[in-house]
Amino acid sequence: MRLVVIAAAFALTTAALPAFADDTAAKPGTISIQGVGEVVAAPDTASVNAGVMTLGKTAKEALAANTTAVAALIGALKGFNIAPKDIQTSGFSVNPQYVYPEKAADGSTPPPVIAGYQVQNGVSVTVHNLPDLGKILDGIVSVGANTINGVTFTVDDPSKLLDEARKAAFADAEAKAKIYATAAGIGLGRILSISEDSSDNAPRPMAMKAMAFAADAAPVPVEAGQLNYDVNVAVEWELNAPAN
Asked: What's the alpha-carbon Rg for the chain, to the nearest Å?
């Protein structure tokens, strides 16, 4: 009776008996358990999207001003010893700026008029020396960057962290499986399958454990925080038949 109850509660499945007269012993069932592994690490890399937006009466005028400002921006980044491979142009656009006239006396609405042009050009920057991040942000704004679309912190090579999370996830699944098997009075047999949910591998920021850089090293206050890497794994075991 105890085996029947645990089979219903924990989804233990029993293989059907083959129709052979000489096979009277029930084959073992299986148990599938999910485990979670978690590793916390401080980031060592930051990604910044910065750019310059300029206005001009003509597209050429706006572009000329933008080109000068972006050249200064890239020069400032290189001045912080950021490698060319870590600077990538992105988000270039030229857009007309419209003025919408008021309705005419007869109630009609005149068409919009182009009053000037807006040029926007940005760069994606990867910063490996995080203590310099505050200085870099201050420096690029000082030379004319007027759009910064967020700062993202990452670990440059998270492979070792994910491997540790995988080990912890398997250990978690195995510990749970042993508890269920012991409660059922049976043992764990060979592993039948292991599958990982890769969607859980992305790092999650943990702001409550933020680590602020010293003010004298970062004119712009920066908090790198910590990142949490999770791995979910599903493991299926064959169950050993209970002893008679």
From this structure: 31
Q: At what angle do helices 159-184 and 2-10 cross, to 10 degrees?
A: 150
The domain in which residue 200 lies consists of 2-42+158-240
Which of 97, 132, 154 is the last residue before a domain boundary?
A: 154
Structure tokens at 197: 């949910």
| Same domain? 75 vs 23 | no
Asked if residue 192 lies in contact with residue 234, where contact means CB atoms within 8 angstroms, the answer is no
Tokens 């996830």 -> residue? 169
CATH number (domain holding residue 141): 3.30.70.2970
**pLDDT value for 76:** 93
Question: What are phi and psi for residue 3, nearest 5 degrees?
Answer: -65, -35
Number of domains in the chain: 2
Return the higher-pLDDT residue of 225 and 114: 114
Q: How confident is the model at residue 199 (pLDDT cuts 50, 70, 90)?
A: low
Q: Are 37 and 163 in contact (CB under 8 A)?
A: no
Residue 44: pLDDT above 70?
yes
In the numeric block, which tokens belong to residue 207?
Answer: 């702001």
The pLDDT, as a whole number, for residue 158 is 92
**Residue 70 phi/psi, 5° resolution?**
-70, -35
Q: How confident is the model at residue 205 (pLDDT cuts 50, 70, 90)?
A: low
Whether residue 88 sits in one domain with residue 51: yes
* CATH code (residue 233): 3.30.110.170
Residues near 130 by beta carbon (within 8 Å), at least 6 away in sequence: 43, 44, 45, 46, 213, 222, 224
